[in-house]
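Predict structure. Chain length: 148.
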Amino acid sequence: MRILPVVAAFTLLVMPLAPKSHAQMAASAPPMPACDGVLSIIRVSEITPTGSMDKFMAALAAHQQWYASHGYPDVIFAARVLMRDPQSGAFSYSDKQVMTYHYQKPGGSSPVHDAGWDAYVKLYNDTSTIKETSLSCVPMAGAPASMK
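Prediction complete.
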C-alpha cells in the first residue's frame, strides 16, 4: 500500500506547471538591453493544409492596418521564401513557408490587445503556424527609411 503515495508524489514532481500567459511572461521578463536602432521580430511561418498564401497575406494586411490605425510607426511586411529544387537547381517560391518582418522603435509602449488585435491574430492562426521567431536590434543604418 505504500506504492500509492510514492506514485502520487512522483506525479506531482514531474507534472508541468501551468504555463504563463503572454502578459505574465512580459511582466516577469527582464528588461531588454539598449538598442541604438530598431527592434526587428522575424518569424518563419508554415501555411497549414487548410490555409493558403492568399489567406496569410490577408492576415498580414489586417496586422499592418491594426498597427497603423493605433498610431504605431511599425513597418510590417512578408517575404516569400525561395526553395531550390535539388535535382534541377531551379528556384521557385514556396507555397508553404513565408517570413514576416516587424520593425518597431525600442522603448515604446506595448500594444493593448483589443478585438481588432484578436481578429488579425485569429486570421494568422487559421492559416499558419509560427515555426521560428527571432528578435534582433537592427542598426539605424539598416532601419526602414520611414523609421529613421
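Summary: The chain is about 35% helix and 30% strand.
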